[in-house]
Every structure is written in C-alpha cells, then in structure tokens.
Design goal:
The chain has eight helices and twelve strands. By secondary structure, the protein is an alpha/beta fold. Strand 4 and strand 5 form a beta hairpin. The structure holds zinc ion.
Length: 242
C-alpha cells in the first residue's frame, strides 16, 4: 500500500487544497486522515467535505469531538475554545453527522491510525518526549502507527529488544524487525516553526516514509480568519508556524 497521510487540517482550506493537489500530482491513490478537520480556521464546512470526499479512512480528533460536544472545550486554551464555539455555529448538520460517524482508531493494512495516542485515544495525550513514544508501542499491533495532535512531524522506532529512538532522516526506510510511531505533521497549522503545510507519504511497497512540506497562500488563510471574527492570534501563528 502507498498512501498520503494528512492530519490537523483545522479548517484551513488554502493549505488543504495545496496538499491534495500535490498528492494527486504524485499519483498517490490513497489518503488517510488523522482528524482535527475543524477548529482554528475559517472553512470548517468545506474542509470536512473535501477531507471526507478525498480520504479513504479518517479518524476523529479532539477538535472534531469538541465541535460535536463530546470533548469539553473547557480543557482547551481560551483561543482554541473560542474557535470551537464559532465552529459549532458554522457547521451544517450534514457535516456534523459526517464527523459523528468517525471512529477514534482505524486499521488499514499494516498501518494503525489514531489522532493522539494509541493507549487512550479519547484522552488526547500528547507524545513529545522519547519516553512518551516508548510507552505506546505495546498498544497497537501493526508495524506503523500514524498520529497527529502535536502538529510536529517526526518519528520514533522500537526494535525487538525494546530499544527506542527518534529518527532524524527524511525520507527514512522502514526496517524489518522495527516498529514505528510517526507524527504526520499538520496540514493547516504547523507548530515546528516552519509555516509550510505538512503531510506524510507512506510507501509500504518501497518500505519508506517521507515528510513533505509545501508553500501555500498564508496571507489569504490569515485574512479569512480575521474576516470571520476569529481571534487574531490564530491568524498570526500561521505565519510563524507555532
Ligand atoms: Zn490539532
């Protein structure tokens, strides 16, 4: 299987369009989506429609659940919570229904999909440090688990002896006997100080993973956020990627 893995679109249609165009240009037929289709950005309806129309499998993220009232936005920072309240008012009922149908985890071939963490998908734990990654390998069976949530692309592997380390190469090979947790990065709100849209290519045949970065029209996405009356900070952060 070869697939593009997208995550954390966050209602950023400008970034999503550029990513989907790039995936099609590379003739990659399968798209897997790790959730957080909405929240923060100005195009929730169009992003839900486009994501679900283009992707073969999509799991739910914490912002999707918050928009459905399943996760308390009281756990969000004030700016994120304000964006969720705005998003709730914008989302049409057909798109609410589409979000409601999403599962927290999915298995596709030798790949496991979850928005936040394999151990407790509905608690939305962040995986940042190596010790965080290390704990989660026993909670999925496949060779590769894709996650999103932190908006920081990266990967860690674990070998048969339990030795775990981060991978710093891009692209990098999938080695037999090793298992991987890969953060696919964020399409619509990168937080690794690189404002370009991010997605990941999984090639199960060539046994490789590659992170892709793409320029998109940031000023246009920013203007839409401001025109929608969303917090200014949400427009500003798109330019710096944090
Ligand atoms: Zn997110």
């Amino acid at each position: 299987m070869k697939a593009a893995v997208i995550s954390d679109v966050h209602s950023n249609l400008e970034a999503l369009n550029v990513v989907i165009k790039d995936i099609k240009k590379r003739r990659i037929k399968k798209i897997l989506c790790l959730g957080d289709l909405v929240g923060y950005g100005a195009d929730p309806n169009k992003c839900v429609e486009l994501c679900l129309q283009e992707s073969d499998k999509t799991v739910a993220g914490n912002h999707d659940w918050a928009a459905l009232g399943r996760t308390d936005p009281g756990t969000f920072n004030p700016v994120a919570a304000e964006a969720i309240e705005w998003t709730k008012k914008q989302l049409r009922s057909d798109n609410m229904k589409r979000l409601k149908a999403l599962q927290l985890t999915e298995s596709v071939g030798d790949v496991f999909l979850v928005h936040a963490s394999p151990q407790t998908p509905e608690i939305w734990h962040y995986l940042f440090r190596l010790e965080d990654f290390k704990k989660h390998f026993k909670f999925f069976q496949q060779q590769v688990c894709f996650i999103g949530h932190s908006h920081i692309p990266g990967a860690a592997f674990q070998d048969a002896n339990g030795y775990t380390d981060f991978i710093r190469d891009n692209p990098f090979p999938l080695i037999d006997g090793r298992r991987y947790i890969v953060n696919a990065g964020s399409v619509g709100q990168p937080r690794d100080l690189d404002p370009r849209a991010c997605y990941t290519i999984y090639d199960g045949n060539a046994k490789s993973i590659e992170f892709i970065r793409l320029d998109y029209n940031v000023p246009r996405a920013q203007q839409k956020v401001l025109d929608a009356g969303l917090p200014e900070a949400l427009a500003e952060r798109l330019l710096v990627g944090r």
